[in-house]
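Summary of Year 1 activities. Much of the first year was spent building the evaluation harness for sequence design. The harness presents a backbone, in tokenized form, and records the residue chosen at every position. We chose the following record to illustrate the format because it has been used consistently in internal testing since the harness was completed.
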């Protein structure tokens, strides 16, 4: 029963294709095969674009503002009222993303309802357009492109509604499920959008709302593994002046994995905790620190460079540590899919260089 939705979606797509080619048989040739292959290739990015456009339109109806929109490595990002174009591969493996935020804080219950509608916008757009295209293929214009484009949209829409985690990425269905089932005060998703709202209000994390900081601390200590991704935000708040507070908050979260495996949330916790050890002058003496640092993943160039910098620092290679930290700053560039404009991360890296 767990995979019944995937089975029914696959059966529907296969049956639709079979019925279409029975009703409107193709004269098979190299040309027709190339048309079908090209239709499949073109349909995927177009369907992703429609999906993200659906999120964008639904978000705008909820009063949200676009931060960035991406399809593959192609990114449009908004900064200071202007749109900027970047070519940056997704760090977490997103095929596309419409990242939006609330321009100001709203009540958490209101935010939850608005976020549910915003998230539904993507898959529902695919499903509606998919069925319209299939209607065109069967009733108005019998061309395989409309059928394939429609089926890809239907597939993308329904599969995104399936509540699963793909590596460190939640499908729209899982986001909706978590928003509906988890109380707002315990929701990492709502906390993350609250962080975005504060970031849009001011880039100076020291001026953020104290209640939000307290909420992040409580969530990080919860059993929700995804809350580890919030630890770097507290790093910007407490470092470099108060590393001991961050060490207390993160001591049960960091360096807990048994082997080197892909886990972005663990990477966030590990590198932030290690950075706190660095500022508290405990890094070199912390038990198992070398093994712990080497288990951190390499998917994010910024985290990887910081890990290499801390390893160099432990080995006494201070020049090498600074080189790696400068490399981390270079990796941020003008825009980064995880750090956006990266002002807070850039300040933290500069503080590390100054400390060395």
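For this record, the design step produced the sequence shown next.
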């Amino acid at each position: 029963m767990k995979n019944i939705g995937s089975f029914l979606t696959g059966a529907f797509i296969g049956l639709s294709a079979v019925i279409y080619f029975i009703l409107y048989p193709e004269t098979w040739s190299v040309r027709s095969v190339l048309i079908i292959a090209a239709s499949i290739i073109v349909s995927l990015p177009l369907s992703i674009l429609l999906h993200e456009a659906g999120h964008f339109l639904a978000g705008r109806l909820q009063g949200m503002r676009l931060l960035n929109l991406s399809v593959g490595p192609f990114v449009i990002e908004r900064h200071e009222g202007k749109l900027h174009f970047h070519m940056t591969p997704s760090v977490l493996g997103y095929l596309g993303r419409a990242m939006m935020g609330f321009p100001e804080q709203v009540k958490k219950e209101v935010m939850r309802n608005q976020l549910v509608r915003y998230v539904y916008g993507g898959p529902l757009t695919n499903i509606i357009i998919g069925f319209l295209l299939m209607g065109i293929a069967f009733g108005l214009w019998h061309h395989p492109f409309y059928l394939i484009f429609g089926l890809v949209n239907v597939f993308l829409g329904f599969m995104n509604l399936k509540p699963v985690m793909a590596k460190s990425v939640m499908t729209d269905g899982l986001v909706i499920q978590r928003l509906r089932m988890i109380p707002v005060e315990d929701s990492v998703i709502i906390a993350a959008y609250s962080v975005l709202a504060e970031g849009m209000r001011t880039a100076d994390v020291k001026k953020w709302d104290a209640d939000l900081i307290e909420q992040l601390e409580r969530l990080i200590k919860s059993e929700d593994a995804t809350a580890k991704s919030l630890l770097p935000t507290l790093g910007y708040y407490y470092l470099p002046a108060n590393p001991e507070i961050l060490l207390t908050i993160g001591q049960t979260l960091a360096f807990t994995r048994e082997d080197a495996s892909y886990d972005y949330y663990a990477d966030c916790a590990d590198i932030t905790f290690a950075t706190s050890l660095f500022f508290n002058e405990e890094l070199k003496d912390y038990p198992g620190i070398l093994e712990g640092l080497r288990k951190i993943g390499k998917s994010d160039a910024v985290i990887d460079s910081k890990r290499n910098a801390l390893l160099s620092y432990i080995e006494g290679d201070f020049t090498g540590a600074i080189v790696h930290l400068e490399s981390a700053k270079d990796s941020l560039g003008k825009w980064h899919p995880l750090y956006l404009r990266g002002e807070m991360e850039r300040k933290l890296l500069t503080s590390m260089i100054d400390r060395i």
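Residues 225-355 form one domain. Quantitative recovery figures across the full test set are reported in Table 2.
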